[in-house]
Amino acid sequence: MSINGSIQVAGQRIQVGKVHARKLVSVALDEHTITVYDAERPITAAPRRSTTDLNRTKAKHQISPSAKR
After folding, report:
1. What residues contact 50, with CB distance under 8 A and at least 6 apart?
2. What are phi and psi of 51, to 5 degrees?
3. DSSP string spanning 20-63?
4. CA distances for 26 relative to 3, 13, 35, angstroms
5. CB 10 within 8 A of CB 54
6. CB 9: neighbour CB atoms within 10 A?
7. Are 45 and 17 in contact (CB under 8 A)?
8. pLDDT one-digit tens code per residue, 21-50
């Protein structure tokens, strides 16, 4: 997740808030919704507006454990 608390999934940008910035999150992609989870707790669910398939399963720039503060 970026430093401003947003993530891009299947071509759609989802804002989850600065509280969750730089955290590792999981995303569940459904036919009609995109749900973002912090561990097992859902953070947000957004309506899916695109029909783009998921073509990457890992983040492009991951944060290493030593970089966390």
Report:
1. 10, 11, 12
2. -105, 15
3. GTT---EEEE-SSEEEEEETTEEEEEEE----PPP--SS-SSPP
4. 17, 15, 8
5. yes
6. 19
7. no
8. 888 888 898 889 999 998 889 999 999 998
